């Protein structure tokens, strides 16, 4: 799976995905502000930077697919600085002509559709320079959380009827009460995203891929005028060549929302062009009464693995520590499975905690492991396929049984015995086990990926299928498992699926 051709193909795919945001900005000498330490408990509007610039745009109705256009970008993050400055000046002129009457209390009314009948808006008073501990006691918490046990939703799709099983990005973010958002993505449309947020009252942390020091400096320079925004750049050293993770940590006065989407932070992945479908897992965890917090000993496996992943990403420790102020007990029967790039060696067997080894470990800890006499049924939906072969599928199949990698390793490696007959016996057993495994995979493993006909017949056609990746040379390889492939079609006819 890690041959040179695959690496080159991945690099080309990354380059293509970034073509719409090629750098065009010259260094301006803007100094990067030293933002204050923030965490999931903070809803303080004060910052160490004196700038009062607000980056936002008017909320508009979603356009029809044919009306969607790519905004002209003047920076690597796709921010149209000229247009944003014109909008700011226009708002300033409007305010000077017809100023709003003074208000003692700002009542925030959530204009987005409610995601649950139990969701209720809270009055929120946010005086400047006031700490979270001073504000939180006066808030009216909702009697119940929208997603207390976790759920999986489809992303909303323009032009298709809503039937209660989809969700818009506005409904995920719930910006009226959002105090802090940690957002991780592979692809970004920053200008579009900022319109979904209240950048004046919400602290933001963007977890982004940046391969070089120059790229990091460029990103920091382009966002220097946004005092509420901080950037986090995970390590890209060694074998790591892609930061593909998608994750949201959304902190509200009453709860923490953890979101694991298949969608990037771009409008077409969230249904606004009406051609691409994604899926979202989200769960709401109640804030513990002050000054209670969960101890490390009582943290669930889900929480432990989330924290382990965030530490590997290089997220600020103050944000990670504040996770202990929320009740993770609802995640007791869930697992957070991740992939951290690079080599994993050393004490405490770190290799067991991530990748397919981490998947097998999670299944075993949930009590879902099966034995060698049980044949599994695995339906794998994907939007990107590489140079698949039986060896890689075997690792996934064994992980689905609860193997943390040890059995897979033993099957690949035969230790020479003291006598020749020991070696022969071991080789025969290895061959028998591999043949049994091959038969089980042929019978129970199905891979769903759209056919060429499905893409051509889709609403957007091949031109809108660029994030669904496959190559002819892999399909034609003698080791590719063609017999396992199935055509993948969305129940929302005409839509393509970026689901995993």
Task: Report on this structure.
This protein has 500 residues and is α/β, with parallel strands linked by helices. The chain contains 14 helices and 13 strands. The protein has helices at residues 4-17, 81-97, 132-135, 169-173, 190-194, 213-222, 301-313, 317-321, 355-365, 390-401, 406-412, 420-444, 452-456, 472-475, and strands at residues 151-155, 166-167, 180-184, 203-207, 229-232, 247-251, 255-261, 276-277, 279-286, 378-381, 445-449, 485-487, 496-497. The protein has an eight-stranded mixed β-sheet. Strands 10-11-12 form a three-stranded parallel β-sheet. The longest helix is centred in the last third of the chain and has 25 residues, at 420-444. The chain is globular and about 70 Å long. The two termini are 19 Å apart.
Summarize this, please?
The protein has 500 residues and is of the alpha/beta class.
Low-confidence parts: 1-6, 16-37, 43-73, 91-142
DSSP helix fraction = 25-40%
Number of strands: 13
| Largest sheet, strands/sense/barrel | 8 strands, mixed
Quote the distance from N terminus to C terminus.
Answer: 19 Å
Morphology call: globular
Strand content: 5-15%
């Amino acid at each position: 799976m890690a041959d040179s051709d695959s690496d080159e193909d991945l690099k080309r795919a990354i380059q293509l995905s970034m073509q719409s945001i090629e750098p065009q900005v010259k260094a301006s000498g803007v100094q990067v502000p030293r933002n204050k330490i923030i965490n999931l408990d903070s809803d303080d509007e004060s910052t160490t930077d004196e700038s009062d610039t607000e980056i936002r745009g008017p909320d508009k109705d979603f356009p029809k697919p044919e009306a969607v256009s790519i905004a002209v970008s003047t920076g690597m993050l796709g921010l149209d600085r000229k247009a944003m400055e014109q909008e700011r000046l226009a708002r300033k002129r409007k305010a000077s002509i017809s100023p709003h009457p003074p208000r003692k209390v700002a009542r925030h009314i959530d204009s987005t559709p409610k995601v649950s009948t139990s969701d209720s808006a809270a009055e929120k008073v946010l005086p400047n320079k006031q700490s979270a501990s001073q504000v939180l006691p006066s808030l009216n918490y909702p009697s119940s959380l929208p997603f207390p046990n976790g759920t999986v939703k489809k992303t909303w799709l323009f032009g298709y009827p809503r039937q209660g099983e989809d969700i818009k990005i506005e409904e995920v973010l719930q910006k009226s009460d959002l105090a802090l958002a940690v957002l991780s993505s592979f692809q970004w449309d920053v200008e579009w995203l900022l319109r979904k947020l209240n950048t004046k009252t919400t602290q933001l942390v963007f977890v982004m891929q940046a391969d070089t020091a120059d790229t990091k400096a460029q990103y920091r320079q382009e966002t220097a005028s946004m005092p509420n925004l901080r950037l986090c750049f995970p390590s890209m050293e060694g074998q790591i060549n892609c930061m593909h993770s998608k994750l949201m940590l959304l902190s509200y006065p009453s709860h923490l929302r953890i979101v694991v989407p298949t969608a990037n932070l771009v409008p077409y992945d969230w249904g606004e062009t009406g051609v691409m479908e994604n899926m979202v897992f989200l769960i709401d965890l109640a804030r513990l009464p002050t000054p209670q917090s969960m101890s490390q000993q009582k943290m669930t496996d889900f929480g432990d693995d989330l924290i382990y992943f965030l530490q590997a990403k290089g997220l600020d420790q103050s944000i990670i520590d504040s996770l202990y102020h929320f009740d993770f007990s609802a995640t007791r029967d869930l697992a957070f499975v991740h992939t951290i790039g690079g080599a994993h060696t050393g004490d405490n067997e770190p290799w067991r905690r991530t990748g397919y080894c981490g998947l097998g470990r999670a299944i075993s800890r949930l009590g879902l492991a099966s034995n060698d006499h049980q044949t599994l049924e695995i339906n794998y939906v994907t939007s990107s396929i590489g140079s698949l072969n039986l060896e890689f599928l075997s690792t996934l199949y064994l992980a689905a049984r609860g193997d943390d990698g040890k059995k897979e390793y033993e099957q690949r490696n035969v230790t020479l015995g003291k006598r020749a007959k020991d070696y022969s016996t071991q080789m025969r057993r290895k061959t028998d086990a591999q043949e049994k495994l091959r038969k089980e995979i042929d019978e129970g493993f199905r891979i769903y990926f759209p056919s060429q006909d499905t893409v051509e017949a889709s609403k957007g056609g091949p031109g809108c299928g660029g994030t669904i990746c496959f190559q002819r040379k892999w399909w034609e390889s003698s080791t590719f498992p063609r017999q396992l492939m199935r055509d993948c079609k969305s129940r929302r006819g005409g839509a393509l699926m970026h689901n995993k």
